[in-house]
Amino acid sequence: MLVALVDTLKQLRYQIAHLEDDTLATEYPELEHFIHQVGLTVAESKNDLAFVYQFLYVYGRKSEATFNRFRNELERFCLWSWLVAEKSVFDLKREDIEAYVDFMVEPDSAWLSSSVQWRYKDEQGIRRLNTNWRPFINKENIASQQTLAAMFTALNVFYKFAILEEKTFANFVPVVKKNSPYLVVQSQIKIPDTLSDIQWEYVFGVTRDLCEQQPDLERNLFTLACLKGLYLRISELSERPQWSPVMSHFWQDNDGFWFLRIMGKGNKLRDVTLSEDFISYLKRYRLYRGLPALPRVDEAEPLVHKIRGKGGMTVRQIRRLVQQSFDLAKQSLLDDGFKDDAEQLEAATAHWLRHTGATHDAQTRPLKHLSEDLGHAKIATTDQIYIQTNIKERAKSGIKRKV
Predict the structure, then answer these.
(1) Torsion-angle region of residue 256: left (phi > 0), alpha (psi -120 to 50) or beta?
(2) Using CB atoms within 10 A as the burial measure, which of 2, 12, 212, 223 is most buried?
């Protein structure tokens, strides 16, 4: 039976302590039994897991999103190493890593689940395993370019960390990645995923129109305005262990300009500028919540509130709000005869809203201003992703050439 090796970020320190004290069975009986059984074949598996926990603890301090991303990749990698290759992760050679990449492309059906599953649930002080959990989600294309890139990144960072900690002296990941037949060299023209004008008009407009009948949709409307109008990542709106977005993070300078202080990737703070249009939706949302039209400097109210309970919302909860508005828009598009736009909207994610806002504003805003509001460390990143001027000019100059 496949067993999830890592619980949540919150539970990680308990798992570390249990592993060190040899008391894993008291809280994780299924995991302890699994590690014992694997240890009969791979003697170093317990030490592997202890080091993976150490790695995740260090990188999990950056953000929960980083923890989740590395957890998923390293968990399935360890399981493959122990159960398929029957080796410690520090005994794997180049050809083993290549075999793992092949497995990623076509995993065994027993390793697949039809949907996202929780790992462990508390039951009278014991963390019970969900037997339906699997390392992979069954999708039409499991090993997409994005998935493979994420896998290579996680393994490369892990082995670099292991070298620094003198756990190993070899990292075969870069050479395997360089020669991988599954990775496609990116095209020179790469356009970010965005909503079309009509899709955005329906997503935002339908949500806004329904607010009168369903007042709680005001929260959806404000969330959409933040993600598209302020180019925010969904994690930047959510409650995190080291950062809670609150209303006092809105602030006004001496010239009357408004900003929102954001904790972005790598725990970097930035101040995003607010447009007049966004401020009108901020006022609308605050009045719906029974707050004064504009925030105060000492206001501890969460940026995006829960209908029930206290505090801000998690990434998953905010994503559900966005999906609700996408679903409402899709149905309205179908009703109005825009079948293609409705079908294309099915593939959209919350992150498309950030790309949509930035792509639209790249036509009118100075590149440096846009880059700083997006939170890009390098202006070249903004230029590469959102500025298509040279590409369009090249296309125009070449359209009349003869064969």
Answers:
(1) left
(2) 223
